[in-house]
Amino acid sequence: MNANRAPHIALKVDVDTLRGTLEGTPALLELFARHDIFATVLFSLGPDHTGRAIKRAFRPGFFAKVQRTSVVEHYGLRTLLYGTLLPGPDIGRRGAAVMRETRARGHEVGIHTWDHTLWQDNVSKKDAAWTAQQMQLAYDRFLEIFASAPSTHGAAGWQMNAAALKVLDRWQLAYASDGRARSAAEGAYRISLDGAAPLACIQMPTTLPTLDELIGVDGMDAAGASARLLEITAQFRRDHVFTLHTELEGAKLKPAFETLLLGWIKQGFRLGTMREQYQTLDAALLPVRRFDYGSVPGRSGELMLAGATIA
Ligand SMILES: [Zn+2]
Fold this sequence. Notes:
This protein is α/β, with parallel strands linked by helices. The protein has helices spanning 18-34, 62-69, 71-75, 77-81, 91-94, 96-104, 116-122, 128-146, 162-170, 211-214, 222-235, 254-266, 274-278, and strands at 8-14, 40-44, 108-113, 175-176, 190-192, 202-203, 240-245, 270-272, 288-294, 303-309.
């Protein structure tokens, strides 16, 4: 990073559900417009099967998370029944107008996933054919909605596999944000699978914790979580990728998120899209890291983590 340039925080907005598309996205667009901010918004383009995520209730860590963040309060009962007692609605069909409006307002748009629940629960153990088929469904729907190819991808639940990373190269994406950094001191990297030559698509991992990962830790409320994030960015004055969700920051966490945005502006950060930040990167100078999985505080299960540096 150029020492003379103000550090940049890319705002990566994940949209997981139909409700998050139809209600949370417009709420965030209104907030961004008020502050003249542009973000990267990644859409779930196929069926909303959030209800099936209830199966996660039987996994360790889920009950603690429900207690801390009140899943029903944030997602709504209806969403929690999609794919179980109610059929899963097609987000790409029902939400196409909101998606196009997002791009029309100047935000970068990209692919989050086809079926969030299916991807998040399965991709780490599925083969290349299954993976490519799921990704193709999302790609085709994106083309149908936007009449142009996506510029970027950010995996649902930060879940990827090696085959999925290769698909990003076949799509000729220059950059993606599929996983997490190990700390706020790390940033973009190129990824090597099994020690092979690095893939072309640069990984710009999420470098900061999400608000919902911090809420409830040491009794922190939403305002406390915003304050904690501002402490982290005061300490690590460098480029970051921050992930938020329309279901959360576009709803109950909106006041805390607005406080956070204003705090970052006061700290001298520029806020914007992944594309803006990508354009300041020099691929030849980035570390090459292995593909790895691991856990992050405040989130259950394992996800894609920046692996050991090999070059
Ligand atoms: Zn997601």
